[in-house]
Design goal:
The complex is a heterodimer of chains A (281) and B (188). Chain A has 281 residues and is of the alpha+beta class. Chain A has one domain: Bira Bifunctional Protein, Domain 2 (BirA Bifunctional Protein, domain 2, 2-Layer Sandwich), CATH 3.30.930.10. Chain A has eight helices and twelve strands. The chains are: A alpha+beta (281), B mainly beta (188).
Chain lengths: 281, 188
């Protein structure tokens, strides 16, 4: 009998929680309604009365790390306005985990172990490409040191993602141009790159990880630049969360990742649309 | 103008002056990147298919297609001339646009012509047309098999395949959608 998506979700969730409990991660709950959503150029928060719904729990997780928690994870709903398609739904389930004294490579090792445990993906089938390698190979140019946002985004979806689909299985796209760093820190030894990776499975983006940016001055500068750009695009500008910026002063080095649970279930179910795993969609 | 987020499968848009239709549509948003709308598009004039990706800030021109009722009037060289049922304005359609349909155009036929601005794109004939057989080899008496076909010349000189029992001066019905014989209306 084919397994239904409700039962599948339950089985995968149990395995995910068991994985993190075994490794002594603390499961945390952070606010879903917030006053100041984390500002990112292309992510729009859903208004909710005089609050917004979270687009990610990351700003709270980093504040927890700053107060002394070392290994935390959360599974919960996040909301992004206007994102709808076979691979998008405006309300979706995100898994995030963070650890201190770790960087994006440690988080990659966690991710491989997790996907081995919950999806049976063997270590031996993973591929890895730097952004420079992937773009030179599949799009004929190197975005590092030569970044063009529109060209980057369009070549990513038209050329790189289809090539990753061809390669098949998990492919890690790693070391982003610093302009696409989001909340990741610059790569040690190469200021043109950021310590960020994205995991693709069969060409579908599953997870996004950083060596977390912990420099409050740099973080404020990025938020301010982002606010300028959002304003120029006619998008709503969110205020800067001062308690978050303040907490970065005390935040130890850390790595963290956000992984889309619905897409993971879709891949485990061998489906090509979220329709297969979101029964009320 | 449409904004990129209005795009969807089946929508007709205008690109470089040509009417086009979106035949496939995919919302895409690469990690932390901008929303992209990936379309497969068919040019409704040339029939060419191509891929195009729109960014959310882009605008796309609306395409105004309109159908109007016409009546076949006369042949002018290679053109078939139709007149608008309400304004009597004439429109010339050439061989290329009509294709095989020109075989089934008869006097005073009512047709529908699809326009993009002032450019005729397509013509729709009535589903069935009655025409007389001008010339065909005589069929064997009593042979009513419909699966054995022979060529016949229509009243306008074009040829069509008809069952063996059809004779000169018979009136037949032709399905204009398939361009094939449908049935016999009356014996000549």
């Amino acid at each position: 009998m084919p397994i239904d998506s409700i039962t599948l979700r339950n089985a995968v969730m149990r395995n995910i929680r068991a994985f993190f409990y075994d490794r002594a991660f603390l499961e945390v709950e952070t606010p879903i309604r917030l006053v100041t959503p984390c500002m990112e150029l292309h992510i729009d928060a859903e208004p909710c009365g005089d609050h917004f719904l979270r687009t990610s729990p990351e700003i709270f997780h980093k504040q927890l790390l700053a107060t002394g928690y070392e290994k935390i994870f959360e599974i919960g709903k996040c909301f992004r306005r206007g994102e709808m398609g076979p691979l998008h739904h405006p309300e979706y389930t995100m898994l995030e985990w963070y650890r201190t004294q770790a960087d994006y490579m440690d988080i990659l090792a966690d991710t491989k172990a997790l996907l081995q445990a919950v999806a049976g993906i063997a270590d031996s089938v993973w591929h890895q490409r730097t952004v420079s390698e992937a773009f030179l190979e599949f799009a004929g140019w190197d975005p590092v040191g030569n970044y063009d946002e529109d060209r980057f985004d369009i070549d990513l979806v038209e050329k790189v993602e289809p090539a990753f689909r061809e390669i098949g299985g998990p492919v890690v796209l790693i070391d982003y141009p610093v302009e696409a760093a989001a909340l990741s820190r610059r790569k040690s030894g190469n200021p043109l790159m950021a310590e960020r990776w994205e995991l693709y499975i069969n060409g579908i983006e599953i997870a996004n990880a950083y060596s977390e940016l912990t420099d409050p001055t740099e973080q404020r500068r990025r938020f301010e630049a982002c606010a300028e750009q959002r304003k120029a695009m006619g998008k709503e500008v969110y205020s800067i969360d001062e308690s978050f910026i303040e907490s970065l002063e005390k935040m130890p080095p850390a790595g963290g990742v956000a992984l889309g649970i619905d897409r993971l279930l879709m891949l485990i179910a061998d489906a090509d649309s979220l329709d297969a795993v979101l029964p009320f969609r | 103008m449409y904004s990129a987020s209005d795009l969807k499968k089946g929508l007709k848009i205008e690109i470089d002056g040509d009417p086009c239709m979106i035949t496939n549509f995919e919302f895409s948003k690469p990690g932390k990147g901008q929303a992209l709308y990936r379309c497969k598009i068919k040019n409704l004039i040339s029939g060419n298919q191509f891929d195009k990706t729109y960014r959310s800030v882009e605008k796309v021109k609306r395409c105004s297609l309109m159908s109007r009722d016409y009546t076949f009037s006369y042949i002018d060289g290679d053109d078939y001339v139709f007149s608008d049922n309400t304004t009597y304005e004439e429109v010339h359609l050439n061989d290329e646009l009509l294709g095989d349909l020109k075989k089934f155009i008869v006097d005073d036929m009512k047709v529908e012509i699809l326009f993009h601005d002032d450019r005729a794109l397509d013509i729709t004939l009535p589903n069935f047309v009655e025409m007389n057989i001008a010339e065909t080899e005589p069929g064997a008496r009593g042979d009513t098999a419909t699966n054995v076909m022979k060529p016949a010349k229509l009243e306008n000189g074009f040829e069509i395949n008809v069952p063996i029992f059809i004779n000169e001066a018979d009136t037949i019905r032709i399905d204009t959608r398939t361009g094939t014989y449908a049935d016999r209306v009356s014996k000549g």
